[in-house]
Amino acid sequence: MGNEGLLVVRCQLGEREAFRELVAIWHTPLWRYVRGMVGSQHLADDLAQEAWVAVVRGLPRLRQPERFAPWLYTIARRTVTDHLRQAYRAPETAMEETTTVVADDELSSVLTTMQIEAGLAALPPLEREVLILFHLEDLPLATCAEVLGVQTGTVKSRLHRARRMLRNHLAEKGYEA
Amino acid sequence: MSEQNRPAQRAVPEQLERVLATEVSLRSRLGHVAVGLAGGCGAALITVLWVTEPNPLPTRTQAVFVGLIAIGLAWAVFAGWVLSRRRPLFARDRVLSARIALAATVVTAAGGVALAAARGGTADLVATAAGGVVFTAAAMLALVRARRRRRELLRLRDALRQDAP
After folding, report:
1. In chain A, which residues have their Cβ closer than 8 Å to the Cβ of B1?
2. How many A-B residue pairs are in contact by the CB < 8 A criterion?
3. Which CATH number fits domain A105-177: 3.30.70.1230, 1.10.10.10, 3.30.1360.120, 1.10.10.2840?
4. What's the total number of domains in chain B?
5. In chain A, where does DSSP find H-type helix?
6. What is the pLDDT of residue B5?
7. So what's the pLDDT on residue B7?
8. Rounded to an integer, what distance in angstroms lies between the CA atom of residue A111 and that of residue A106?
9. CA-based nearest residue in chain B for residue A116
10. Is residue B2 part of a domain?
11. Which of A28, A117, A175, B57 can bridge A170 by disulfide, Cβ–Cβ 3.0-4.6 Å?
């Protein structure tokens, strides 16, 4: 289970200082996933906070601390889905928020990451999230399947389709695919 | 993505830290435990007072009793909702809360039995004692389960610490 599992167990015990360490480790991957899905940095801040609150509230009931990562992403995914659902109900504000292309990325990122992240905004949500989870968050296929609530085979086919769409999009933009 | 492609670790925003500090607050949890117990135990004692009243109470007094019992139960329900949805108890919090609950139910049961013995008949005394035993047993069960859960997590924590490099 490792150090992260230990941290989760300490949090479940109620060791308050462990929460700070847990958030310090997982905030970046969580935020990157959310930002990849919604495109806006400020919105990602809000949604990541909302997800963290849900995580803290659900943590005492998490029966398998070793499954923390998929559980965390499942909560983040639910938070993003709820937001997108509300956003689609109010299309004017939604379009403004979801199509904001991130211009304030970390400059330390290398070109390939920037290319992928820039291309993500052009993909539909299902394809976008599977690319983020598998390529940007480095989650194994089985974990992606658990987070997305689908079979591993579905993740593979979705990944294949997403890569093709991203490749086409990047080619249109003039990048080498 | 390779490690070198991964951007630097993002600092946790101060606002998020503040929100999470509130979310995990022990003081808030114990406050709700205290409010819930005070509401529930208060309602129980008022009920015993009402039931053991030797003469029929005026309507206005009965209405006041009903109001007080309803307020006590409402606080107990509200605290239960907060502790199950908004501020769930972590393992150590559960043990602490269960101890407080056991102490509160023992004191309330003793107070109720004393009231019933002084003011009511045998039937009132038996009913109050039975109620006290049930609530005390429930609090003891909650304490046993809370300690078991904490022991499980402590064992798991120690095992993981030994496995850690």
Report:
1. 113, 135-136, 138
2. 102
3. 1.10.10.10
4. 1
5. 2-13, 16-38, 41-58, 68-89, 91-98, 111-120, 125-131, 141-148, 152-173
6. 44
7. 52
8. 11
9. B1
10. no
11. A175
Where do you find CATH 1.10.10.10 in chain A? 105-177
Cβ-Cβ contacts under 8 Å, A43 against chain B: none
Band (B92; pLDDT cuts 50, 70, 90): very high
What is the average pLDDT across B50-60?
90
With respect to residue B17, please indicate whether it lies within any of the assigned structural domains: no
CATH topology of domain A1-102: Rna Polymerase Sigma Factor; Chain: A (1.10.1740)
Segments of chain A assigned to CATH 1.10.1740.10: 1-102
DSSP output for A62-110:
-S-GGGHHHHHHHHHHHHHHHHHHHHHHSHHHHHHHHT-------TTS-
Q: What is the pLDDT of residue A170?
A: 81
Q: Which amino acid is at B121?
A: G
Q: Read off the pLDDT band of B126 (50, 70, 90).
A: very high
User: Can you give the pLDDT at residue B137?
Assistant: 97
B19-35 per-position pLDDT tens digit: 999 999 999 999 999 99
Tell me whether residues B91 and A49 touch, CB distance under 8 A. no
ipTM for this model: 0.86
Instruction: Give B6's contacts in chain A (Cβ within 8 Å).
Output: 113
Which residues 83-102 of B have a C-beta within 8 angstroms of A? 85-93
- Domain membership flag for residue B136: yes
